[in-house]
Amino acid sequence: MTSPYSLFEKPYEPQSTELRLRTFWQDHQFYRSSPNPNKKPYTILMPPPNVTGDLTMGHMMYTLQDVLVRWHRARGYEACWIPGTDHASISTESKVTKMLEGKGINKKEIGREAFLKYAYEWKEEYGNRIVESLKTLGISCDWSKNTFTMDEKYSASVIKAIVKLYRDGLVYRSHKLVNWCPVSQSVISDEEVNFEERSGNLWHLKYFVEGSATGEYIVVATTRPETLFGDLAVAVHPEDPRYAHLLGRNVIVPVCKRLVPIIADTYVEKDFGSGAVKITPAHDMNDFEMGKRHNLGLLNIMNPNASLNQNVPEAYVGLDRYVARKKLIQELTENGSIEKIEPHKLIVGISERGQVPIEYYLSEQWYIRAQKLADLTLDATRSGRLKLIPAHQEKVWEHWLTNIQDWCISRQLWWGHRLPMYTCTKCQHVHCEEQAPARCEHCGHDVLVQDPDVLDTWASSWLWPIGVHNWANPSPEEAQNLAYYYPTDVIVTGADIIFFWIARMVMAGEYFTHKTPFKYCYFTPIIRDAQGRKMSKSLGNSPDVTQIMSKYGTCAMRFSLVNQVVSGQDIFWKDECCDLGKTFANKLWNVGRFLTMNTTKLGVSTSLSSFDDLKELSSDPIMGWVTSEFFDCVARCHQHIERFEFSQYTGALYEFVWMVYCDWFVELAKPRFSEEAPTTLSQQTLVLALQIFDGILRLLHPIMPYLTDEIWHILDESRVNNTIGFCALPEPRAELVDKKALAHMREIQSVVGAVRTIRGQFQIHPGQELKVSTKESSLRFGNLVPQLEFLTKAKFFFEQEKLGLCAPSLINNYEIYVSLEGLIDRNVEKERLSKKMAKIQSTMEGIEKRLGNADFVAGAPKHILEGAQKQYDDCKRELAFLKVSFDALN
User: Fold this and answer.
1) Tens of pLDDT, residues 529-551
2) Is the terminal CB of the chain with fewer CB neighbours within 10 Å at N or C?
3) Cβ(53)–Cβ(163) under 8 Å?
């Protein structure tokens, strides 16, 4: 039998441990869940990553879900975390198209069926990479329930939902402006548009007034002159006196010579520019709305690939939009239609997949009427059935849902759920059916053509909470799963998809099941780099997660990341953040080594020292105190998890392990463990130390699963076929928290801290024994005086005045005095302190000058300002600290 201590002698090796434990967990199917009538379910759905995705820092936020699932599993819930992947229509189609082009294959030439065959082959070859990568995070999903959004059963749910909405009158077809990607030649959602600041020009163009004898013209400014071919009006503010005499007249659009009216609309800002704007209803969202108000009509001038169509002068037909722009500017210059050109910074919407500027494009698409669904969704939060965390997101939620627009659900792609719309080729009647109809219900004709478009990806993932259980056609087992696991408990995701996914899942849940799909929605922070930039592949600032885990260990990375998760605040990430978790992991490993080193000597078995046996509060002051501290920590951990306060949860554990258990309890216990022969007290202290350490491992397991399971197995070889993840979590027990013991020990800690501070202030050698006097009686410290003197390396004199030259310190309502006689040269020390205080004062003055500079404050990034303020506050504290020392010398 291998001794536990011998296994702790070698350093902790994350890589080999993680692979071994991950295989162990999977082989034993520990996290596989099934309905259990004797347990309350706790269910989380993994936000499905794109099947095309690679592991990123964003995926590390799945750690939060794992913390919640492991926590509730250890509390006795039937915890189930359901994973899956999203088919990601545009991304996957883009990658497959690019792959085919590399082989010399044209997508359109081979046709839809052949393309989809290649797409499925690509998915099978590459689509599981993200799943395998996620497993390295140590997450405890039920992989037997892994769902892909284009699985046959899931797809049936997607189609069933659209058919129901259509039959309920909530799906319709209409011509509207949409976000259009010229590369994929498809509608894209707002979420797939990234806005960038780019350098461009503002062209000021002359629109001559029809019939003006004096050559009068109106100047309009535009950043996209090629869109003038689609102009249908020039608008001015109704109260602008400059143009009052022109209202109702026409202007001539340059080059194309079209006559368009001058109209009045309050949307126009009369004090901005010339106070006149060109109106292009088919190519600008605001112009589209103004066009509707004034019945201007629509004139589309572009083809799907962003070249100009037949509605422009012949010389421009077929030209790419930017080629056409260059040619048009030349012609406008030649005919004198440009008044001036100014450099201009503009915000441009960029297609995330196509990486080109989008067009606002007039197109016939399918829509879902959103108002009724929005009302149901608003009721979920207003009634309290759903809580958003942080709560300030509810304002954003309310604003969007109360101003909601109908949802464009069609995409001009092949990869995805094809719309279940079938049009009769004879009478054009449209059918919406789960299965292709044999003949037209209107005229009986037997040739019907299915709509070629596919659904917006969000129009499939909005069914995620019920689709994973085959909502459309559930077997008895699936129906049981749906009834047991749905609604879920919480969804954890980024706030950037609050509308695209979260709100729509609530819509689907409320409409199709009359239930809110989850009780809580926790929005994770945005992870930014040290400069405050959002991480992205294009910026090259997104670190390689696999490399970080390899360098520091997965548990170290998990702990370090979650320790920074404060609700509503962004994370500023540097890989060096993981030093905290790595050092903490090593600390836990060394605690295991220290405890097992003493078990043989004191005749204590680690296998008989389970936390489950800790049932009473010891009368021994040290053991009673540390037990009280532990259960105080337990209560705080429970409170933090219930409130989704993740950083406070890790902080409470870190503080207890490092500052209470290691820095104080272990140090206080060392004299007992160092006695030559075992005593009942030393054995009891070691047993308690092991019991609490077992409790620590259980509390830390949700955040550091690999490390805690490894230590737990080492401490008892009989656990070889089990995991710590199913050990009962320590529960709050108020009867095991002795507040008097806590107050008493915290006073001891204050005294020790004060003596150590004075030792440091005056640079007294750590080995030098000190003399400490106080007017207080030794009874105040009970039988802990030996420990007090051991920890301070000092001799205490009670009920005495101060001993000559001393450094005082106020503890609660009394003073202690540390004798400095013979330890320092008063004058030399005063000179040293004076120089140091002067240097700090100079630093503070420099910071004050910077923070008092309005230009610096206005231009500096937030993290620079915060850093400067922190440096100032640190200097201020140090200066006050040194002044106390200086005054003591007087």
Assistant:
1) 888 888 876 677 888 899 999 99
2) N
3) no
Single-letter amino acid code for the residue at 798: F
Residue 714, token pair as written in the block: 């080492």
Which secondary-structure segment (H or E) carries 527? Answer: strand 527-529
How far, in Å, CA of 800 to CA of 803, rounded? 8
Strand-strand pairing, 78-82 and 41-45:
parallel
Longest dimension (CA), the chain: 117
Give the integer Cα–Cα distance in Å for 534 and 566: 17
Neighbour tally for 578: CB within 10 Å: 22
Q: What is the DSSP string of 750-811?
A: HHHHHHHHHHHHTT--TTS-EEEEESS-GGGGGGGHHHHHHHHTEEEEES----SSEEEEEE
**Can you read off the two tokens belonging to residue 601?**
């000597």
User: Where is 624: in which H helix or E strand?
Assistant: helix 621-642
CA angle 560, 493, 525 (to 5 degrees): 45
Read off the pLDDT band of 881 (50, 70, 90).
Answer: low
Name the band, by pLDDT with cuts 50, 70 and 90, for residue 1.
low
| In contact, 517 and 468? CB cutoff 8 Å | no
pLDDT number for residue 186: 87
Beta-carbon contacts of 169 under 8 Å, excluding residues fewer than 6 positions away, are 369
Q: Which of 277-281, 351-355, 410-414, 748-752 has the lowest mean pLDDT?
A: 351-355
Mention every residue, 6+ apart, whose C-beta is less than 8 A from residue 252: 207, 208, 209, 210, 258, 259
DSSP letter string, 661-678: IIIIIIHHHHHHHTSSS-
